[in-house]
Each structure stands twice: as C-alpha cells, then as structure tokens.
C-alpha cells in the first residue's frame, strides 16, 4: 500500500516541502505503525528544514519532518505486546510525523484518553514532555512549591502555556513574558504577565519586589541573560532554545530526556487534560498538503497556538 507523506530533499524555505506518495513504512522490532489522525508542527521542524543544524545544502536522504503524532495502530513490529491493532495512541514518531502513515517506538507512545480529541492530543507530546523535564531540572517538579517565584520567558508559546500551568498548579508564583497581544492569555493561566524583550529584568523586578528564584527560557530570543541576572545564578535558570546563550552563561540547555520519563509526563498531561485540569495550547489545523504554510505561520508567529496537520 502507498500513502502520502511530506518530505524535503534539500534545505530551504517552505517551498522545499513536497507532498509525495510512498510505500507504507514497516515497523521494526519494538515499533508500531500508525494511521496518523493528527500531526503537530514544532519550531524544530522548520529549523531542521532550513538547514540551520546541518552542513551542506541537502540531507543525505529525503527527510520527513515532525515528531508529534496521534493516530490508530495499524501494524505491529516484532515483539510488540504493549499495543494492539486498533489502539488509539499519541506520542513521538521516528522518521517523521507529517504523513498518513508513521512509525513510532512503543516506548514513545501512550494511549490517547477518549476524552481528548486527536488534534489536541497531537499538540501535546513535545511541549508537555519538555515543560515537565525543564521544570524538574529546575527543582520545580511534582510537589508543593509555594513560596517559589519563577519567570517563564515565552509564556504564550506552546511550551510556555503548559509550563506556566504546571508551575501554578505546583504552588509557585509565576511571572510570564509574552508579546503585547498575549498578555491577557498569560494572566488567564494564573501568571503575572510582562512584555518580553529589552528591559525584561526591570519589568520583572517591578512585579516581583521580593525577588525571583528560578528562570525558564522557553523562547530563545535572548532573555536568558536577564533570567540569570534576576535569579543571581546560572544554576537557577534553564533554556530549551538558546544553545549559544547557555554555553556563554553556564546555563543548562535541555533537549530530550529518558523515554520512560517522557512517556510518564505525556500520560500525566493527557490525564490532566481529560479531567479539565490542564488547558492545551490553542490548536489551529491545516491540511497535510499545507505543511509549508503551517511551518511558516509558526516561524513568523503569524498564527499563535499549536499548529496541527490533518492527513
Ligand atoms: N530543547 C527542547 O527539548 C525543545 C522542545 C520544544 C521546543 N523547543 C524550542 O523552544 C522554542 C519554543 O517552542 P514552542 O513550541 O513553545 O514555540 P512557539 O509556540 O512558537 O512559541 C514561541 C514563543 O516565543 C515568544 N517570542 C517571540 N518573540 C520573542 C522575543 N523577542 N522574546 C521573547 N519571546 C519571544 C512568543 O511570544 P508571542 O507569541 O507572545 O510573541 C512565544 O511565547 C523553540 O525555539 C523550539 O525549537 C526546544
């Protein structure tokens, strides 16, 4: 059988993405294949497509972007007992998620609660696992953190929206930076909003006269230096998006975690969502064929929220 997939054969703008037919992928040992119902766009997808993290002007083989997928298991690899054909699952694909059929490691998948729709489920894996991991590394993991004040730079972004809610639920006082247009959204999540960009530290001090304990840079737009100044130590800050800044300032850059920890975090976030205790980032959908437009809308932030492709 063949199915549609979005791929690129050279690095460049959204125009390098092409919708093609390919043979359905075969799941390897410990993997399943999914009939994809929804696949989310992450900033990493367009960064990789643009070649920012590669040398040369073309990858060695056609690349299918995307990690976040939700779908129905339709084939099992050797040794798979955790899932059966027909199971509704969500998690991270291996070898690309912008496809009608995608493969994923069983360890990277969890069951989709019936109460959570396909699009919302697909929006969650990368952002939820990242928010859980970064907060845990900062010492703001599970438990009561009343008395701790954290600044989340990029609180209106997909990772930021989840991180703010987790930190608030754990009792922390949260100050969240966002653009002018998203101040009310950040307030609605339980944080005190401030505008990001130059002068961030002064604006934070004005709303946190007793000081700031922790800083989480979710956006990578240069706020890391202010977070270190506010907390007084590079060890009290973390970034998921400013690798160079982390190197320069001695701050932890986190990317990827233990697959079992990631799955536990995703399952918990889905459970909170199903119970109405967590609000997912706003989802905006695009047909799979318009993956390039979706990536560019995310890159430019022309469209805020989590952009999700529907095969
Ligand atoms: N290391 C990891 O494991 C990992 C995992 C996931 C994501 N990431 C990275 O983390 C970043 C955020 O991902 P995401 O999915 O949350 O992205 P997103 O949903 O596109 O959000 C981007 C955020 O950046 C904010 N922003 C825009 N311009 C800014 C500026 N000048 N100063 C400060 N903030 C600014 C946006 O605010 P407004 O919309 O209010 O303007 C928004 O809050 C990306 O670079 C992504 O590659 C890393």
From TrEMBL:
SMART domains: PKS_ER (SM00829). It comes from the Bacteria. Keywords: NADP, Oxidoreductase. Its EC number is 1.-.-.-. Residues 12-309 form the Enoyl reductase (ER) domain. SUPFAM superfamilies: GroES-like (SSF50129), NAD(P)-binding Rossmann-fold domains (SSF51735). GO terms for molecular function: oxidoreductase activity. Pfam families: ADH_N (PF08240), ADH_zinc_N (PF00107). It is an enzyme of class 1 (oxidoreductase). This is NADP-dependent oxidoreductase.
